[in-house]
Sequence to fold (388 residues):
Amino acid sequence: MICFSHLRWNFVFQRPQHLLTRCARDRRVFFFEEPWFDSDGPRLTVTRDPSGVIVAVPHLPAGLHPDAVASELSSLVDGLIAGEQITSYIAWFYTPMALAFSRHLEPAAVVYDCMDELTGFAGAPPGLEQAERALLAGADVVFTGGQSLYESKRGLHENVHAFPSSVDVAHFARARSGAPDPVDQAAIGRPRVGFFGVLDERLDIDLVSGAAAARPDWQFVFIGPIAKVDPEKLPKAANIHYLGSKSYEQLPDYIAGWDVAWLPFARNESTRFISPTKTPEYLAAGRPVVSTSIRDVMRPYGDLGLARIADTVDETVAAVTAALAEPDEVRQLAADAFMSDKSWDSTWANMWRLVEDVLRRNRRVAAGGEHAQRTETATPAAAAVTTA
Fold:
């Protein structure tokens, strides 16, 4: 499998990492990132992740015209395929913009795993909507990262399937054992309201600032990298603590020291279709969850009483207060029952069955003498590549 992604493999461990590490158990997986513009000439660095995934990172000179960028990336992809002696492969897309340099490829199947509505994010590249329409036209199967995205895309393709956020229950259940606090969290007082994830335009800055001001006796802990926002504009207070990025392996140790897990997302275009992976992870860790009214949190978690929904400062204070008084046992039993069939292993197995259906269909088409020109008809020649 060759995966084309707008995300860095080593940035945050999320949906692509969960799925592709499982894919790599049975076949070679190449994760082709967007380029770094930091080189005198085009080159590709290829490294093997401990998971088995092979990460390919293009390096290009700065200042290239978008057409030249696409041409150089096309050559680097060809070099990777030739150098690794890849003869039959699946093209798996997270970014439609990769069509600009992959239209000449002839994969056995084209998969679009639409994990976010990228057009709603800050800095979305020109031509993204056009590129996504082309990818949808050329894909054999489309997966969506949540129910809201599924409802948005299902009318645009005949083979769309919703695969909401899954969870590695055993990994996060470690937080229930009461592990010792990590050094940088140990001195923070209680109760603690925690969040982990990328700190970007999706964070409701006013809500965070207001909640911290309303309850100075509560401690608000944030874990994760800062992206696409000025760090100086993040809320500052004595009871707000930014602990930086932590590895996926470390997260249960931090969550173990929280009293309530929070999803303080703004309600804007960047959050309209999100399905936060952290929701089931918080629940697997045994923490009560408070979230703003994100549709894919409200349905099903809010409807099932597994998350409290609060948008204003007053609502948030009331929800956290109720969560702090809630006994763990009943909530954890309900959460465990809900998540019993939502593992990443199960999600990947179900996805792969659909991919195998496509491969069988495409083989039948090829055997019948038909030639599906997916990449030729589906790819806009003028699409630009997003920059890192």
Notes: The longest strand covers residues 43-48. Residues 11 and 225 are 8 Å apart (CA to CA). The radius of gyration is 22 Å.
